[in-house]
Protein 1
Amino acid sequence: MANQNKSNQKRRGRADQKPQNPPEKPPKKGSGLAIRVITAVVFVPIVFACVYFGNWALTGLAAFLAAVGIFEYTRAVNKRLEHPINYVLAVLCALFIVGVMKWHYEYAMAALLAVLIIVFIAEIFAPYHDVKRPIATVFGMVYIPLIFGLFQAFEAIPNGKVYIWMIFVIAFLTDTFAYFVGRFLGRHKLAPAISPKKTIEGSIGGIVFAVAGMIAYGVVMEQVFHLSLPIVTLIIVGVLGSVAGQCGDLAASMIKRHCDVKDFGKILPGHGGVLDRFDSILFVLPIVYVYASFTFGYLV
């Protein structure tokens, strides 16, 4: 009888035990890469088409990047502000800047000054006042929509699309080869407090391949499109653009680290947000625009 009671207790004990959840399967190797590739396959042709067709298509691209970019920036910065930036105001101001630059890119400074006034008026009449909020907002306007809006300024330059492609060539080659050279040859940290994985060797590798890419791009321009630029200027813009692109990457990393966020967003699966993918382009774009302003005469 005692043995039967013990066996019943054991059965009840086993019945009372909750079934354990099976261990989660680790993500398959390469799944992250597959997502990145799929996103690139979808998004790259859209960017290509916007640049190729230009005009309102290019404006649409600039407006999309500016609106999403300022939204991501606002969400990150709000984590550090006692009184958050208004998302609607930020996005509307960003679109206003891009729209004015479409009307005439030379009015960009006037648009920025108008936004500065609007932002501070909004702060004056806000229930709570915080000088950090309008300062952060205006900085975001310079950092994101003002620069993305500059894409439209290339349409006023003869053969402006030739220069727009340079932006992507420099940024892509710098990002790609800085990563691979740094991964296999990197020994010395570039900016450990901001981005611990970046190395001096990777940075140099990015510059070298960006310059090589610009020289190759110049050869293609001359052989296929019968347009030529002095090779010395291509080397110079390759170096300056690559350095600027890496600074843009580090600047975005510095903002993310300060705001304690891993990525700015998730709109581009596998890549993060617009600012995660276009952080280097934000700094390369003005360099190439200045270069185009001084060298377009060679292409006429």
Protein 2
Amino acid sequence: MRPHAIVWAFALTLPLWCPIYAVMLHVPFQLTSSRAFRTLRHAGLAVAVSSCLAVQALFPSAPSAIAAPVIAQAAPETPAETPAELEKRRSELLDSLFERLARAENEQNAELLESAVWQIWLRSGSDTIDVLMQQTIKAMNDERLDAALAILDSIVELQPDYVEGWNKRATVLYIRQQYDASLRDINKVLELEPRHFGALSGLGLISKAQGKGKAALDAYRRAISIHPFLDGVSRLIRELEIEVEGQAL
């Protein structure tokens, strides 16, 4: 992306990534790679760059920072997008990001793409749900798991198609060692978003904890097929291959 296009994309996405970055600063243990979050904790620029990647996916011919104000003044005001149009755009953006993630050439690029995906997943489309999610993450960070679980129960009831509501609740249930309940929520996550590498990683963790090595191996392999640089998963796969497949030799 050219420098002026990056500036334009940064400005365009400013209202999107600022509140999400504030949320991600408080993300605790997850059923997924934490490396992207550690990156965001130490470098807010990663969020801005990943936002630029997202904009570039939607607007490959973005105008320069100089021309944009002129175009904005000359163009007639367009009506706001409908919820269906917004969902279509969101879906197309995720498709583009996942395609890039699967082809990522190095860990750094993969982390930026991963953080862009998490930004989209964390956005519920509802101000109320977003506030509740911030409260959830704070409660989890403070190890107030009962409070976090109560809020998440409300989130999934109010907006059952919000993937991260189910994923965060699966995380809390996993921490409480309520594995069967966590698995039910993971299955719901994967029903809504089969590419959710975080949920697949969680499925691997729980399967391994329950002594189901082959199921854990299958889950990790599915996760890494979506996100080739998912933190720590390659090592877990190698260990399980020896444990599960090595025993059969």
